[in-house]
Amino acid sequence: MKTIHISHPHSFTRGDLPETVMALGYFDGVHLGHQKVIQTAKDIAELEKRKTAVMTFYPHPTSVLKKESEPKDVITPIREKERLIESLGVDILYIVEFTPIFASLTPQEFVDNYIINLNVKHITAGFDFSFGHMGKGNMENFPSFSRDAVKSTTVKRLSRDDSKISSTLIRQALKSGDVQLAAELLGRPHYVKGTVIHGDKRGRTIGFPTANTELSDPYIVPPTGVYSVIAELDGKAIKGVCNIGYKPTFKKERASLPSIEVHLFNFDEMIYGKELTINWMKRIRSEQKFNGINELIEQISKDKEQAYEDLKRFDEKLPMCKSSERTT
Fold first, then answer.
1. Residues 6+ apart with CB under 8 A from 216
2. Which residues form the Riboflavin kinase domain (predicted)?
């Protein structure tokens, strides 16, 4: 996949680029609804013998249009969004810089500059996609702005239990700790990536060494508590149990951010400085304060047993690590 970063004004003309069928959207999470929009573009491109393109925007439009509601966390940071879109078999990804000037473009200016001048012959988007200043352009009036020079296909809403599958619904699920619902809507477990750093090293002294992970991007992290997880390290998938929290048993003062510590099953290697991916599989319990180390050790043992049970169904196949070597 070729990634093209665009800032307004750009100098591309139709002759610079191949004819494409383009999927349009912000695509945070690249969830099942987004995948449907992109797959529709792919199917049309195959029929029309054209390349498949995706256009997304960075940073999040609300960070430009409504600074007071700027999202501090995203489901998929831009580099992960790029990786996920590439995995769907897209030929070209356009990442358009979302600025106040870009946001002020009229629907006609957007279509002329970012559809027609990029040699797009057919677009796909969700039923609620809008474009141009104040969102005055939409899939219904798109033909008038393209002057029928570009075809359009509107993808109907994809629902679960009468609720539209959306990035907003997924964010709500993650922030409430319902990582299983989030996985259903995403079509894969929600994951975060980070670097293994030095921590208190207390876990090793009580028989449960952990990988203290510092996130590489501002991902949405589930609320404090204990989770069954599958980690990815050096191409291997490793089952484990993860604690997100402030360690109230040992610390009186609350840190500014919770720590993310993963106990990897049947694993005992020094991995400081390595990148670790954490796939959130199931919430086990909330964080709690214990009356001493023995009580804590007893509960961690129970958490570990619960995680083993939760992860049994992944013994044969770990969907997020298709080429990984399994470690149990």
1. 77, 193, 194, 195, 275
2. 185-312
